[in-house]
Amino acid sequence: xxxxxxxxxxxxxxxxxxxxxxxxxxxxxxxxxxxxxxxxxxxxxxxxxxxxxxxxxxxxxxxxxxxxxxxxxxxxxxxxxxxxxxxxxxxxxxxxxxxxxxxxxxxxxxxxxxxxx
Amino acid sequence: xxxxxxxxxxxxxxxxxxxxxxxxxxxxxxxxxxxxxxxxxxxxxxxxxxxxxxxxxxxxxxxxxxxxxxxxxxxxxxxxxxxxxxxxxxxxxxx
Amino acid sequence: xxxxxxxxxxxxxxxxxxxxxxxxxxxxxxxxxxxxxxxxxxxxxxxxxxxxxxxxxxxxxxxxxxxxxxxxxxxxxxxxxxxxxxxxxxxxxxxxxxxxxxxxxxxxxxxxxxxxxxxxxxxxxxxxxxxxxxxxxxxxxxxxxxxxxxxxxxxxxxxxxxxxxxxxxxxx
Lengths: 117, 95, 172
Description:
The structure holds 3 protein chains of 3 kinds.
Chain A: H1 2-36, H2 40-65, H3 69-99
Chain B: H1 2-22, H2 26-50, H3 56-80
Helix pairs in contact in B: 1-2, 2-3
Chain C: H1 6-28, H2 35-54, H3 68-94, E1 103-108, H4 114-126, E2 130-136, E3 139-144, H5 156-167
Helix pairs in contact in C: 1-2, 3-5, 4-5
């Protein structure tokens, strides 16, 4: 039993760092999507990758690195706030843009449409 | 490895700043600032672990709350041009 | 449908107080209960509860703790869906030539109560690739990154699960 705990304690920081790095890389990917996509509504989808997957992976990674349970509870609270407020602000943004009359681009878009704003 | 994650987050924030500065419409800018805030929340936590002071997480909780409120406030201001309008609820009590 | 009687309000109030106390204990992580710190915590909890009462936000959506376990089970299912949908959007971000097919779709929901509708619309927004743009009555306007992902019937399972999680299996 102690061997398992020792192995876990040696393995934990590596796993945590790997998950944290994966989350950070996902944040970069979401940002690249925000820069590449052609109009506001599609950019919203790319940004939601950062809000969900990147935040979850990074926070789980930090939880593996955490020295005490108090830190894990704080991380859980951060995660909960992100997941409760993220969709609300996304919906508020989409709704405000739609109410203001911003029309989304519809239909299949290729590379040559990408430059049109 | 934690340092690499911090650097990746800083790169993501820098790229997102491009969108915030160049975004063609107001909503692109608000979206970029909101998404930038999410990344800053993560970066604050990472910095806390990097320097061995996880108390930074308290700051990131506060930042999460302020980020949400500021997004809603900006959108409300640009819709009504005032903070004084009350956001009344439609259809109280359900169908 | 809504418990507007006194017992319902008291239940929501007690739920809010319980959650606030748990949040304060979790964040401060202080179990020595020194008089100054504990009294500050008590004052902040009472102040939050009074503010919530004055804002009139203590109702079924503001305090949905009676169905906490069902909502948590739904949350677990939703996390799996979120990660599946993330994969699609990540591929769309990284593909060397831009290839997306955005569409605006109207989704009809069977959710009756405000809580179920909120949960359903927020789930749609939380899933990458779909964003709920407008909620009017029992129709939700959804913008999707790929039209194929939001075809007819694509949201039926989410709709059913959100309804069961927030309203229970018995109702419609």
